[in-house]
What does this fold into?
Amino acid sequence: MAQQRFFTLAEYLRRRFSLRVRKIPLDAGFFCPNRDGVLSFAGCSFCNPHGSGSGLGKQGLSLAQQWEYWKERLSRKHHAETFLAYLQSFSNTYGSIDKLRSVLSEIARLPDCIGLCLGTRPDCLGGEKLDLIASQPFSETWLELGLQSSNDETLARINRGHNAACFAAAVRQAADKDLAVCAHVIAGLPGETPEDFLETIRFLNGLPIRGVKLHNLYVCRGSTLAGDWRNGSYIPLSLASYADQVARAVAALRPDIVVHRLNGDPAPGELLAPDWAGRKTDVLNAVHAKLQARNVFQGQLYRPKESICA
It folds into this structure.
């Protein structure tokens, strides 16, 4: 058996539940202030204008129908016994608290659902919504918050619409409610160096987060970044460079943080570049090979005194 070099979500869930647990993506019809004109109409420069997720909600399927669709497939393919509902598409706390309350109530009634993973922006939260999320009857609740970078100049460059201090404040508010936060960060953002990505990891180390998703930046059809890529002003990372940055990030990452993902998955038909981003097995193999070649383990270079708080 290969040596475990970082704290995976699968390992965390095995310890927590002693069952096969899988995530089911759900589209509850939420939107984004960076798309409807409150902050911007353009969205983040890297973002698919249709949002992440399965697209089943746009096809008219209810949450219960989406749940059954994925539950049947995951049970058959992975022998999953229980599931986490993943509100993935767009910003799932944006809008009225009444809508959020209704959606969470419906999810709590789904069969074999033991937990919730809720994706949103740090500027779409507040005390009342955090109280509502924390009050739900789930065994496991993760608040998935997009940061992408701790560099405010980068955040402005990609039209993120918030700064790093906003993210840090949201994380602390969520932690005060005993909500587990999983931070989303991206390697290869325009204008960033490998050291910038490491600074983002150190920034996370200084915050009360419990999980992280590491993503490679890829160019989506219809995104602002697609124009930059076409005119040559943005050049994606090579697979070797991405694997190198992930290895360095894992070594620097606080050892108790659960690594939920090592790469991003383009939706069918959305990927423009780089080609390697659409080959998940190749990406994971490259990352694991780099970790092994360098004998990297999570946290081996973590230094508490180097942590950055904002």
